[in-house]
Design brief:
It is a single chain. With 82 residues, the protein is mainly alpha-helical. The chain has one domain. Helix content is 38%, strand content 0%. It has three helices and no strands. The radius of gyration is 13 Å and the shape is globular.
Length: 82
């Protein structure tokens, strides 16, 4: 279960530190070494992988609005999950 607090579904974990499934930091850091905006935190994972799939990030997406909004979504998510 990604939602670690059933009373508040805005609180979630993307498997960091062994919650749900294994995404240990050293492996994820290596996997994302070419991503300039990579941060090891659940809200950042969700911003790039909203469907929870390895290849569902928007790097190859032609949706310019989504690419343009990505930095703003990141700032909002960081504030929301601090």
């Amino acid at each position: 279960e990604c939602h670690v607090n059933t009373d508040d579904y805005t609180v979630f974990s993307c498997g960091l530190n062994g919650v749900c499934h294994e995404h240990n930091q050293s492996d994820m850091d290596s996997e994302h070494d070419e991503e300039s905006d990579y941060i090891y935190e659940s809200s950042a994972c969700y911003n790039c992988h909203p469907n929870g799939e390895k290849d569902d990030d928007d790097d190859d997406d032609d949706d310019l609005l989504r690419k343009w909004l990505k930095p703003f979504k990141q700032k909002i998510s960081n504030k929301r999950f601090e």
